[in-house]
Design brief:
This protein is an alpha+beta fold. Helices cover 26% and strands 32% of the residues. It contains eleven helices and 17 strands. The strands form four sheets. The chain has an eight-stranded antiparallel beta barrel. Strands 11-14-17 form a three-stranded mixed β-sheet. A two-stranded antiparallel sheet has the order 12-15. Strand 7 (159-172) and strand 8 form a beta hairpin. The longest helix has 17 residues, at 25-41.
């Protein structure tokens, strides 16, 4: 019996491993968090970034992962312009790192445990598995991973979700690593499992997942594998205007994912775009943090977009109900709870845009 379900996730991943070397760790983290990541989050298509530190005593000891809408984001002019425009400090620090490697992956499949709450992701620990597999055994290998291995891993207590990727590009210190003739015969895969605790390898459920006849057969086609364990260090979110690509999707993900974001972008015309304030770690850890935008109109309506209205919105989107020409004008409130889903968008007055067009265009 399956203990997971499929999850709609961003279709690409930028995976960066690094080792500070002679750079002091405090300076390394200050540069990475305050100088290196922020401009990357301004690139269209980059949705978020999470940083991790190794807890397995292996190197590289630092990991950064960027969720991207598609792998093409890593080839966009905006992304490629980052390196040439780097500061002198960034160039100096990167030159002193022992190692830094960037890989771009394409998502093949993503699974989540039915009991996992989306606000519990990213998890405290990530179990990262690299595998290189012979192309002639590619189909059999992927079938084993999806049909048996992921099912067994999902039974581990504390397993929250798992993603399965295929490598498209690897770059080391700005130089693309071209595969050799022998490497052309293989595909590189990446598995990322998010877990609540790090002691899972000693559990009987984990041992059951790595000791099956089918696994023993497919491992003959694996010429390289690496298992790593990292602990979450910091989460970064983009600071963009409301209505920008990726922002609505990020806000409504707990309410139903990209389909609702698409519905909001296409069917609702956001006529006034307040800035999204940066949400600090301390704000997230507090019981509730509200970001309230002052009302531009007065009214008695308080239509709340919540779990109960999601089916209605999805139905409207699927059926193509004509909602164009409607503007979200008035109060919008985002309430964030650190562990439970408590997302509300309060609409004080939802009327045809024509009633308010002149006012909002003048603002």
């Amino acid at each position: 019996m399956s203990t997971y379900k499929k999850l709609e996730s961003p279709k690409g991943l930028i995976f960066v491993s690094s080792e500070p070397g002679s750079v002091p760790e405090a300076e390394f983290n200050d540069w990475y968090d305050n100088e290196h990541i922020p401009p990357r989050l301004d690139v269209p298509g980059i949705l978020s970034s999470s940083r991790y530190k190794a807890v397995d005593s292996l190197t590289p000891s630092w990991l950064a992962m960027y969720d991207i809408t598609t792998p093409d984001v890593a080839q966009s002019p905006e992304y490629k312009s980052l390196a040439p425009n780097a500061s002198q400090r960034e160039k100096q620090i990167m030159g002193n790192l022992s190692s830094i490697n960037r890989r771009v992956y394409e998502l093949l499949v993503s699974y989540i445990h039915p009991d996992t709450k989306l606000l519990s992701l990213p998890s405290k620990y990530v179990f990262v598995v690299h595998m290189r597999v012979g192309k002639q055994e590619d189909e059999v290998f992927n079938r084993w991973y999806n049909e048996e291995h992921m099912v067994l891993l999902s039974r581990i207590p504390g397993w929250l979700c798992g993603r399965w990727y295929k490598l498209l590009e690897s770059v080391s210190r700005g130089v693309k690593i071209e595969p050799s003739e022998d490497e052309e015969l293989f595909n590189d895969y990446l598995a990322i499992h998010e877990l609540e605790s790090q002691g899972f390898m000693g559990l009987p459920e984990f041992n059951a997942a790595i000791k099956t006849p089918w696994r023993e057969r497919v491992l003959k086609s694996v010429i390289f594998s690496e298992l790593r364990l990292f602990e979450l260090y910091k989460i970064h979110k983009p600071l963009r205007p409301w209505g920008s690509p990726g922002v609505l999707q990020g806000l409504v993900q707990p309410l139903g994912g990209p389909r609702i974001a698409t519905w909001m972008r296409r069917r609702l015309k956001v006529t006034r775009l307040p800035r999204v304030k940066e949400i600090s770690d301390s704000a997230l850890s507090s019981n509730q943090q509200a970001l309230t935008r002052p009302s531009s109109t007065t009214g008695d309506n308080d239509n709340t977009v919540n779990d109960n209205t999601v089916p209605e919105l999805e139905s409207s989107w699927k059926q193509g109900t004509p909602n164009s020409g409607v503007g979200i004008v008035c109060n919008s409130k985002l309430v964030i709870s650190s562990r439970t889903l408590d997302f509300r968008m309060s609409i004080n007055d939802l009327r045809p845009e024509s009633d308010h067009t002149a006012h909002h265009k003048a603002v």
